[in-house]
């Protein structure tokens, strides 16, 4: 992406960002949203300029990840800059970065004043995080943990859906990282995760994973979580 000046590399070329946004907004009849980072690096945090370009182009909402491109996912998201952008433009702002729990979601909303949040990596291995956040916002307390069998049902359904959507070859490969994320919180699962990554048949993946999960069913009532 960087070689072709695409993705976050575009942050180095503000005129091209403006041209692309104007062209896309004018070309389609639906709202156009934009997700970006704070800038290319610490010396070039140009999110303020990018946000104003987006506003003038008619972007419907702006999602901001609280790091620069060169930071990748190192360090901590800088929510103070997202808060500054929220005050400087008349756009719905979605805060993104390091939101891994309902408590953190509330903290980020309060700290940034954002209109919403966007979650990516935080939901890996725990897609029920979204429902937990909604519950926490409404009731000001954490919901009950995901019940073990309910979590197993979600995981196995997700695995089958990946096979259906991506096909036998692609689905098997893509499933490996997702199952790894699910099982990262499961005690003593490292050896099975290595074995699972060697399986090259979709039915075998389903059978082996189902059998592995059932070895925990009599011992645990709830799925594991970090919050």
Give short descriptive properties of this protein.
4 strands, tRNA dihydrouridine synthase activity, 4-stranded parallel sheet, DUS-like_FMN-bd, 8 helices, 50% helix, 2 domains, 227 residues, TIM Barrel, NifR3 family putative TIM-barrel protein, alpha/beta, RNA binding, Aldolase_TIM
Structure description:
With 227 residues, the protein is of the alpha/beta class. The protein has two domains: 7-139, TIM Barrel (Alpha-Beta Barrel); 148-214. The chain is built from eight helices and four strands. The protein has helices at 14-27, 47-57, 79-88, 102-112, 129-139, 148-183, 190-196, 202-214, and strands spanning 33-37, 61-65, 93-96, 116-118. The chain has a four-stranded parallel β-sheet with strand order 1-2-3-4. Helix 4 (102-112) links the parallel strand 3 (93-96) and strand 4 (116-118).
